[in-house]
Amino acid sequence: MILKEKSLLVALISSVVVSLVLILTLVGYVIYTELKGEEFKRSYENSLHRINAKIYSKYIGTDMLKAGIEKNGPLNTKPIIEGVITNKGYKNISDILIKVRFLDKDGAGIYEYVFRPQDPALGTYGLPQVSIPGLPVPKKVILHSNESLAFKAVLTDCPHEIYETMRASSAYVENPVKKWSGKLDAEIISVSF
Length: 193
Hints:
This protein is an alpha+beta fold. It has a domain at about 60-190: Immunoglobulin-like. The protein contains two helices and six strands; from the N terminus they run αβββββαβ. The chain has helices at about 1-55, 160-170, and strands at about 60-70, 80-85, 95-105, 110-115, 145-155, 185-190. The strands form two sheets. A three-stranded antiparallel beta sheet has the order 1-2-5. The protein has a three-stranded antiparallel beta sheet with strand order 4-3-6. The longest helix has about 55 residues, at about 1-55. About 10% of the residues are buried.
């Protein structure tokens, strides 16, 4: 009789443990599939944006692209990149991602900077746009068909050699480092409509 009670108790405990393992495995699988689904969705959307960029980039112009040192405003002495982006196509662009390469004298890229030209302009006179909790966020700029948008972005991680070359071109500096030739190359890497 004691042997039957111990066997029954072991069987009951084993059943509970196996049931818990099965339930936790099923819960883990459901969580995994949800996370994997979100990752797949993000990957799909990123791929779609890159494909849009390859197809639609012939309608997007980047003009007056230049890099230098800001001389006025709150970003005085900061390295910046600025220019004008033009939508020559038939669709309104809600988001665009540009990669600018700084080229050496042989045309090889020595530094890349990726940014969104539709983000609020920095370095303008007056107060810069910042998001404050509790206040409405400024609407994202939509680049409509056949419109242009001037942009300015701060080069947050600009290499010292490029910064020195920019500084040397804006004022006389003895023996500047000349790795960067002063040439830029822009590529549209992501477009959303």
